[in-house]
């Protein structure tokens, strides 16, 4: 068991609320104070329980006594998952003169941008979510995880890992169609799986490229447009300037908080967000989460 001192500000309840936002989420389990997550580390499946408090975050491996190298991996993963190395006060300072954010910040204060650290999972999630509602996207993800992912049973609960690229690449199109993937999305998922398997697309190379070049790398792949690329750069790579401006949830939040009587079009969205010259990823993330407060 290891305890991490948390950066200020950090609000455990806000992070747990985000992690528990869907009862169809299959890749972690949340209770009133903790989140449970299965990790694949080398050849081992390691289940961890993360107790979240406002001052400390305590990580307890449940099914293994981890070696020092595995413990280091777990700590690094958790720091990335909860974005613990970001100076959140800089974000709050950047929106201090914005009345919309002043209104939504109090209940969200201390919320971290929860990541999807695995590159393949984050791109698949972006592709799956294209042009469908969130509930249906969760159902497709659940179908894929149950069919092609790895699982571990522990004390009456099942814990799951997202499928590896090889599993999706080798899956039959017919079975993927039965799992509610469209023909077009099957093609896109397999393109990405192949690129990752061949080393043509890596998280390290995207990190090292910088935001603009990484975005261009991603949109060079069939099935990844500007929204998908920015979603991945925001949720997986952690680029603060990532801005999925086409996002339907963002538009819904803008309509709500700017008291519009219609869904804003892209010209209006660009006008409403033209002052967002920094922290676009966090602004978007907070607006998404604000929809659950209304």
Main features:
294 residues; alpha+beta; five-stranded antiparallel β-sheet; 15 helices
Account of the 3D structure:
- The chain is α+β, with helices and mostly antiparallel strands and about 290 residues long.
- Helices cover about 50% and strands about 15% of the residues.
- The protein contains 15 helices and seven strands.
- It has helices spanning about 10-20, 70-80, 90-95, 100-110, 120-130, 135-150, 165-170, 175-180, 185-195, 205-210, 210-220, 225-235, 250-255, 265-270, 280-290; strands at about 1-5, 30, 35-40, 45-50, 55-60, 150-155, 155-160.
- The strands form two sheets. A five-stranded antiparallel beta sheet has the order 1-5-4-3-2. A two-stranded antiparallel sheet has the order 6-7.
- β4 and β5 (about 55-60) form a beta hairpin.
- The radius of gyration is 19 Å and the shape is globular.
- The two termini are about 40 Å apart.
- The model has no long low-confidence stretch (mean pLDDT about 95).
């Amino acid at each position: 068991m290891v305890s991490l001192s948390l950066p200020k500000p950090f609000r455990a309840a806000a992070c747990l609320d985000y992690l528990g936002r869907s009862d169809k989420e299959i890749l972690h389990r949340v209770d009133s104070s903790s989140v449970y997550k299965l990790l694949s580390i080398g050849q081992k499946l390691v289940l961890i329980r993360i107790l979240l408090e406002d001052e400390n975050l305590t990580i307890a491996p449940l099914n293994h006594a981890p070696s020092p190298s595995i413990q280091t991996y777990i700590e690094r993963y958790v720091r990335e998952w909860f974005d613990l190395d970001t100076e959140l006060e800089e974000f709050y300072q950047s929106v201090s003169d914005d009345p919309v954010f002043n209104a939504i910040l109090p209940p969200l204060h201390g919320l971290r941008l929860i990541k999807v650290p695995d590159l393949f999972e984050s791109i698949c999630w972006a592709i799956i979510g294209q042009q469908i509602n969130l509930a249906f996207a969760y159902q497709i993800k659940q179908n894929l995880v149950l069919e092609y992912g790895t699982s571990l049973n522990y004390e009456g609960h099942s814990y799951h890992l997202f499928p590896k690229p090889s599993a999706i690449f080798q899956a039959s199109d017919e079975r993927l169609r039965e799992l509610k993937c469209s023909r077009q999305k099957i093609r896109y998922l397999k393109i990405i799986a192949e690129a990752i398997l061949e080393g043509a697309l890596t998280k390290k190379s995207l990190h090292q490229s910088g935001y603009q070049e990484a975005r261009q790398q991603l949109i060079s792949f069939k099935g990844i447009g500007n929204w998908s690329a920015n979603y991945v750069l925001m949720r997986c790579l952690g680029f603060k300037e990532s801005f999925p401006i086409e996002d339907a949830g963002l538009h819904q939040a803008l309509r709500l908080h700017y008291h519009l009587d219609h869904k804003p079009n892209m010209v209006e969205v660009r006008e409403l967000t033209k002052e967002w010259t920094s922290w676009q990823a966090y602004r978007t993330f907070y607006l998404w989460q604000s929809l659950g407060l209304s």
